[in-house]
Known about the structure:
The structure holds two protein chains of two kinds. Chain A is mainly α.
Amino acid sequence: MFEIVGTPKLQMINFFQIEDLKNTYEELKIKRKSFVTKATMAYLYRRLPLYITDAFDIRLRLYPVEHWISRVSGSFKHLLCESSPIKLTKSGLIHILLNYYKNSSILDKFNLFLNTNPSEKKIYNFFHSHYIDFSKCKDSLYFINIHLNLLIAEKTGKTSLMLELDQVASGVVFYLLY
Amino acid sequence: MNYAAEKNMTELTEENFIVLQNNIKKTYIKLSDKNPNPWTLHVTNAHNLLDFIEESDLFIIEKVNSKIEQKFKSEYYYIISSKIPLQHIIKPLKLPRILPNKTIINSELLDNLLTPIKNGDGNFARSSSFRNVLEISRNKKFNISIPLLTFLQTLFENSYLEEMLNLPFPKMSEIELYETLHKASIDVNVTNS
């Protein structure tokens, strides 16, 4: 007669799977708290001007005094926008849409469409018929921000969007937009 | 020692806030007579303020008098900050709207807003030698993007949050997503008008 000694293999696999799930759950809990905290802070500071001071360093490069502003990596930087919206021109609209489609296969189609010298209204129509798939974007919050600002710009003619010209050194982007 | 971390406070509820309030040094703090709101503390002078910042778990300063302004070289008109680790705050704080139009946010607040949670005591190295060589007077003025905030809040209400952090919108259909975006942009127009 045989007798099973120790833990059966199936039970061991279940144990490791449960441990993995526990770890994943803990990570998600921390991320969730981080998200809610940041969203709450943004909510508290809505409609209030936020000033970011800057200074030249020893090499005369312009850096923000607030240390982490030029070292941000999270999606929450997109919660900051220009305090006063400015009028969006046709070339500005094209520039925003080129950024909007930059990681999408629609970009080629949009470039062909631009060759026809379309009016502003036609450009907005193109935008409405060619939304990008946010679930396939790497930085979905950034593209959602562009999408939202395009919707608002269509109604108001103004925008306070800050485009990222270089996603690696994103802090510097704030200063390129003076 | 961080009292919130010691007592394993995972939520900053009103009850927890009162517990924290009772455990910070009362000798330095007086509740404002004019504003009996228990969420608001009134700090009387600059020395108290500095001690308070050093030793308290959480501080909210509503009014800053001239001495304190001098002490801070009028850099911060109003100061709100928190030493509770971010992971201990998961519910919206019921802070009164006390920030006036002229507000300079200190770097700690911006750090909290813009950077991921860092472990440890938050003692980040700051490269002071590489800056402050030549101060310039022009400051950049930002606001919180209300459309995006509205959109995020909608996501949170629909409990898509954890899914969003892991993988973008697996449960939200494309139509739902664009409807939410349109709704966020419409809400802004209403509030602006």
